[in-house]
Amino acid sequence: MIYLASNSPRRAELLGQIAVPFSLLKVSIEEKIKEGESAENYVLRLALEKAQAGFASSNKDRPVLGADTIVVIDQQILEKPADQVHAKKMLQLLSGRTHQVFTAIALVDSEFSKTRLVKTAVSFKVLSEQEIAEYWLSGEPLDKAAGYGIQGLAGKFVTNISGSYSAVVGLPLYETEQLIKEFYRD
After folding, report:
1. What is the DSSP string of the chain?
2. Tens of pLDDT along 99-129?
């Protein structure tokens, strides 16, 4: 049994798919990159901070899992869109190109903390202005890294994926299960 420090219904659903019993903890941390911080270190730090914040607010009777996902293209981090204009710019940047999705997970308790980083390459077809506009109107881009959710309507934009599909959704299932097993062995 673990706690999941997340506000994401997708992460809760994914964790349930691998039959890990968990309770949900809602956490809030500042998600701002530090000067000179690499994308990899940034997403790992956010996952760890979420897990630590969850542990601090929990009964401290079991480990807490935190996770974070970012999209990277041209060494630029694409997070959740601020508004429609921002979402449109990000989707135009992804159009007809391959980008990286970094998902980090962290598991912590009072004695240990362990992290993992999963990188997945995702390729998009060329998107028309109309497709981008219609996608925005669906409401789906609002709370997703780079303004898209592969598990929803944006799945039709994807021409290729190399890596973990579940990591792109928000929680790498294989790596999560391995991390939990490793954590309980230590």
Report:
1. -EEEE-S-HHHHHHHHHTT--EEEE-------PPTT--HHHHHHHHHHHHHHHHHHHS-SSS-EEEEEEEEEETTEEE-S-SSHHHHHHHHHHHTTSEEEEEEEEEEE-SS-EEEEEEEEEEEEPPPPHHHHHHHHHTTGGGGSGGG--TTTGGGGGEEEEES-HHHHHT--HHHHHHHHHHHHH-
2. 999 999 999 999 999 999 999 999 999 999 9
* Catalytic residue of the set 61, 68, 74, 83: 68
Q: What is the mean pLDDT of residues 156-165?
A: 98
| pLDDT tens for each residue of 68-95 | 999 999 999 998 899 999 999 999 999 9
Give me the CATH topology for the region 2-185. Maf protein (3.90.950)
Instruction: pLDDT band for 186, please (50, 70, 90 cuts).
Output: low
- Our answer to whether residue 68 is catalytic in this structure is yes
